[in-house]
Amino acid sequence: xxxxxxxxxxxxxxxxxxxxxxxxxxxxxxxxxxxxxxxxxxxxxxxxxxxxxxxxxxxxxxxxxxxxxxxxxxxxxxxxxxxxxxxxxxxxxxxxxxxxxxxxxxxxxxxxxxxxxxxxxxxxxxxxxxxxxxxxxxxxxxxxxxxxxxxx
Length: 152
What we know:
The protein has 152 residues and is mainly α. Helix content is 54%, strand content 0%. It contains seven helices and no strands. The protein has helices at residues 2-10, 15-22, 26-39, 58-70, 85-96, 102-111, 128-143. The longest helix is centred in the last third of the chain and has 16 residues, at 128-143. The mean pLDDT is 86.
């Protein structure tokens, strides 16, 4: 959008008209015009991704991916073998002394190619009785017998 604005500025179209055509605020159009006037088209180029930067260095992210590959049991969670976002946030705090929220840990896991295996909360509409009935009545049928032992 900023590059389209630069083209319109080069055609000497009024800033307020640029704002109208591009459906942006007049304030934004004036900011873009000032950048364009002072630095040309290059000044209107992308500033990169928005949002806060990752608090872990690339080396620490690489180490974290290795820790996740090792599994939860290697880091003290022996009751099951699933990474939850809460566990990953705790692991980051223990290993790197950096505080991450559960949602921040989820985003970081996705960036590393992992996903939390257990949701943080159960949905309010979940019907435990229906789930239990489904497990008894349908799961055995759906699951099947599996592969024979020793088969490929």
